[in-house]
Specification:
62% of the residues lie in helices and 0% in strands. The protein is mostly helical and 504 residues long.
């Protein structure tokens, strides 16, 4: 029995060692592609709610699976087509693709990798030792060698505690959001009536909407997205914190949670994590100054967007039927979702072009874009390692910037959709195509949709639907957008691309 256990332990150690050595990009790519394919099989083998009258095509099901896994919420079919089981499959895909869950999983696996006498463990040992009390120091001086070995084996306690904090962060905010959503639906008759009309279960809807918002996916199990709930301001208030806590404000809130836990428990591991955030190997853990300026930048962007959106759209057709309070909450919800979530309470196709351009810029920005004064930048760079990656190979130098790839993608899509652009220029205009591409790249999900009323050559068989604009694209255009969604989810591996090109 012991031999069998040691054999499996050796195999697991070899796997973890291989995981540590393989390029992280390929691991992430295999993760997303493989789970997207499994999700497609689950959607394909299960019956949609609309069967037998309508079954989505295989490409549309794979597109939906990729969109859920990459947290993009781009859609080629209406959401009410899917059955309750298929919605549960999408919940699992959105959870597995969420940034917080993925970062926890990666940190958890790294914490299991055997690194004998590693520098990281030595640093953590020294850090914990520096926080020990004088009494502990006196007792440690008389410990045996076996006790020292035990201390070394537990030297990764700060990393394990960080994993526990992240997991608790996920659990608490999901449970709180689902509970509040269920309570709101139970107490507010209009929201309950919407679910009854749509044939949606309250528990499935609540779990789906909270997971979708926290993972910044943006899928809603109604055809109209959140437009059908635009007068339910209480529900919008429940969802707004989920959007921010799961993405743009995650590093700031995570550090705040760890600080609060340290103040309550006074555990040395929490203080060590706060002081030695770089040594944790967790890219979402920032310094206190960095976290502060990130939060200030996020709220600054929100305020700027909110003012511009209200000034341009306050008396527009999109605001019809809403009172003052509902306009304020709806506008705030819309601008919060313009970065990485993509839920909408307004029809984007009737918003002004200036607002759409603003949304394109916001969707393009990386999630942790922040204003950081130069003095703090110099302090951060002072702890960096020497220039060890300056010498790059010729192949790496050929890597272009992300903007270059997006321009090429827009050109390719304009080629694949050239017939539609010629015959239906009001729907297939370059701004709508650009917004769709940038939305897929930013894993947002904003879309202007498609309207039969904008057709120059009216088709008698044309019917307005609630799926995204990409639903009207050709097979080549849809495949290109799938590639863009994967590229957007993995864009962190190409943030330094294009630096070999000098434009001056």
């Amino acid at each position: 029995m012991n031999n069998k256990y040691s054999r499996w332990s050796s195999i697991w150690s070899c796997f973890l060692g291989l995981f540590y050595k393989v390029n992280s990009f390929w691991i992430h790519l295999c993760y997303f592609v493989s789970i997207s394919f499994v999700g497609y099989l689950a959607l394909r083998l299960s019956k949609p709610r609309s069967a037998p009258y309508f079954r989505p095509k295989n490409l549309d099901l794979f597109f939906t699976s990729v969109s859920a896994m990459t947290n993009s919420s781009m859609s080629t079919v209406e959401m009410e087509v899917f059955s309750n089981f298929q919605l549960i499959v999408m919940i699992i895909l959105m959870s597995l693709g969420g940034e917080v869950f993925m970062s926890w999983l990666e940190l958890h696996i790294k914490s299991k990798i055997p690194r004998n006498k590693s520098i990281e463990n030595d640093k953590i040992e020294l850090g914990l030792a520096s926080f020990s009390s004088p009494e502990n120091e006196n007792s440690n001086s008389t410990t045996t060698s076996s006790e020292k070995t035990s201390t070394h084996s537990s030297s990764d306690n700060p990393i394990r505690i960080l994993c526990s904090v992240i997991l608790g962060y996920l659990f608490v905010f999901h449970v709180a959001g689902i509970s509040l959503s269920l309570l709101y639906i139970r107490l507010v008759g209009s929201a309950k009536e919407v679910l009854k009309t749509k044939g949606l279960q309250r528990l499935t809807f609540s779990v789906f909407i909270i997971v979708s918002n926290f993972s910044n996916t943006g899928f809603v199990p109604t055809n109209e997205n959140m437009i059908v709930f635009k007068k339910n301001s209480g529900l919008l208030w429940i969802l707004i914190p989920q959007v921010l806590l799961g993405k743009t404000l995650y590093p700031s809130c995570l550090r705040l949670v760890i600080w609060v836990l340290y103040k309550i428990t006074r555990r040395a591991e929490f203080e060590y994590v706060l002081r030695n955030y770089k040594e944790m190997g967790y890219p979402h853990l920032f310094s206190s100054v960095h976290s502060y300026f990130l939060g200030a930048t996020v709220f600054g962007f929100l305020f700027m967007q909110f003012v511009l959106f209200c000034s341009l759209e306050w008396n527009s057709e999109a605001m019809d039927g809403l009172n003052f309070y509902q306009k304020v909450v709806g506008s705030l919800f819309e601008v919060v979702n313009s970065r990485y979530t993509g839920e909408s309470v307004f029809d984007l196709s009737i918003l002004s072009s200036a607002v759409l351009v603003l949304f394109v810029v916001m969707m393009y920005l990386p999630p942790y874009t922040l204003f950081l004064p130069r003095i703090y930048q110099e302090k951060d760079s002072g702890n960096c390692k020497p220039k060890e990656n300056e010498k790059k190979g010729f192949v790496e130098s050929l890597i272009l910037s992300q903007l270059s790839y997006l321009v090429m993608a827009i050109i390719i899509i304009c080629i694949t959709e050239r017939d539609n652009i010629e015959n239906d220029p009001l729907n297939f205009n370059v701004l709508n195509i650009t917004l769709e591409v940038i939305s897929a790249y930013g894993n947002v999900g904003f879309s202007t949709g498609y309207s039969c009323k904008r057709q120059l050559k009216t088709e008698s068989s044309c019917m307005d639907t609630w799926h995204g604009f990409v639903g009207r694209w050709s097979t080549g255009g849809k495949l290109m957008l799938i590639i863009i969604m994967f590229f957007g989810k993995l864009k962190k591996f190409n943030m330094k691309g294009g630096k070999s090109w000098k434009l001056s």
